[in-house]
Amino acid sequence: MPIRLALWIGFAFFILTMLALDLFVFHRKPHAVKMKEALAWSAAWISLALLFNVGVYFWQGSRPALEFLTGYLIEKSLSIDNIFVFLLIFSSFRVPAKYQHEILFWGILGALLLRAAFIAGGIALMERFHWIVYLFGGFLVLTGVRLVFEKDKEIHPERNPVLRLVRRILPVTEEHDTGGRFFVVRQGRTFATPLFLVLLIVETTDVIFAVDSIPAILAVTQDPFIVYTSNVFAILGLRALYFAVAGVVDLFHHLHYGLSAILIFVGAKMLLSDFYHIPVPVSLVFIVSMLGISILASVIWPHPGGTPSDPTHRR
After folding, report:
1. In whole angstroms, what is the distance from residue 94 CA to residue 96 CA?
2. Can you give the residue range of the structural domain that contains 271?
3. Computed over its alpha carbons, how large is the radius of gyration of the chain?
4. Is residue 268 domain-resident?
5. 79: number of CA atoms within 13 Å, CB side?
């Protein structure tokens, strides 16, 4: 068996094992995830990602290891917006805290499959049509600029077109099922529960975020294994990160400026790729610096009205 194929199979087995342990052992019974548990899981996933990064270093060398770390940080930083949207969705549909982890579990499992398709498609397009690099680069620059001016843009998850379609096809119960099920049978008819609608919104939201994040990491490397594994580790740690920082995410109200700078930077890197190659270490330093500066700015200059509590507005 080729080494490359063995690595893919080994990584897939590892991820499936961790997901099975998560759902059927550590979170077998639905419960509200407390801060201490969330921080422990966050530390565990970050540690696993860093250990994997060390493995990449010894297996492929310093450059792929730096590419993995840079890609992981890009995905991790962009996932902050995911956390805000998850908070908004759960608040809008009044999802009980004890069911939020399971929804995120199945949502992220779907995201792993969707990201694989996005990555394969993105790499194939870049290999066949080189001009796609400029399209991706320009899109990221525009997205970064737009992020600055859409700070207070309202989001309405109930307007999701997928949600509207499902409501037309399936009857939906008004209340959440006490057992946390996605479907229930009543009088011989199958009804979707609001939890299923929330899951669909989480999945479609990830598709939207993938449109930004996949081109961003492709600006760093086009190695499918590095791109996908860095994405997977960032996504798997997203649930724990959500429960760890959801309550204080609005404290970092200047973070969107840092995310904007990162998107503009990686977009510019793609646009300049045929004329000047920005070294990966430079990209890594820039990303870490922008995150640090924007977080520090949020601490030094707090929100003038205190911590925003209205979940219907973006940071």
Report:
1. 6
2. 3-300
3. 20
4. yes
5. 23
Q: What are the residues whose beta carbons fall under 8 Å from the beta carbon of 76, sequence distance 6 or more?
A: 234, 237, 241
Residue 50 to residues 46, 136, 168, 219, 291, Cα–Cα distance (Å): 6, 28, 45, 21, 18
CB 181 within 8 A of CB 193: yes
* Residue 306 counted as domain residue: no
Counted domains in the chain: 1
Structure tokens at 136: 């991706």
Please report whether residue 46 resides in a domain: yes
Kind plus residue range of the DSSP H or E element containing 184: strand 183-186
Q: How many angstroms separate the CA atoms of 18 and 237, rounded? A: 12
Per-residue pLDDT tens listing for the chain (315 residues)? 567 777 888 888 888 888 777 767 666 676 667 778 888 888 888 999 999 999 999 988 889 999 999 989 988 887 776 777 787 778 777 888 778 877 888 888 888 888 888 888 888 888 788 788 888 888 888 888 887 776 555 555 556 676 777 777 877 777 766 667 788 888 778 888 888 888 888 887 777 777 777 888 888 888 889 999 998 898 888 878 888 776 666 667 777 788 888 888 888 888 888 888 888 788 888 888 888 898 888 888 876 655 444 443 444
Q: What does the pLDDT look like over 192-241, one tens digit per residue?
A: 888 888 888 888 777 777 777 788 888 888 888 999 999 889 888 887 88
Residues for the chain: how many in total? Answer: 315
All residues at 6 or more sequence positions from 152 whose CB lies less than 8 Å from its CB, including other chains: 313, 314
Query: Is 174 a domain residue?
Result: yes
Residues 6+ apart with CB under 8 A from 246: 83, 86, 87
Q: Which residues of 65-104 are buried (b: 16+ CB within 10 A; e: fewer)?
A: bbbbbbbbbbbbbbbbbbbbbbbbbbebbebeeebbbbbb
